[in-house]
Predict the 3D structure of the following.
Amino acid sequence: MASNISNKVEIKNRKASFEYQFIDTFTAGIVLRGTEMKSIRMGKANISDAHCYITNGELFIKNLHISPYEFGTHYNHEPLRERKLLLQRKELKKIENKLKDVGLTIIPTRLFISDKGLAKLNIALAKGKKLYDKRESIKSRDTERQESRKF
């Protein structure tokens, strides 16, 4: 019953592909509390301001806003708390080694519900685009639109 509804939840960070050039992508699980999963299933989350960091060999996400569950009691969750992300150890080591390069960061790109009903987060190892790179991506997008209109 509810599995059809939950699989359609997909929250994207559209600003990320414009601001950053993706080098490598990973899918991570999220450690959630109580009512957070219910809010995500309702689509009440925002990842546009979120970013990830590594501390003591563990990956965390900061500024991931999950709105409080409207039917929650006094046990409702904090909207902007730091949440731990779950990756395999070899993936964490790979990210940690690449982060030693200057200018790289970890950006969340997509929050979704997996086939098993678990909340997953696509993250990307990214490098910030320069102004001329952004102009180039706008130019290529406009030319693609014009080409698609011709047909």
User: Anything to note?
Assistant: The chain has a mean pLDDT of 85. The first strand starts at residue 10 and ends at 12.
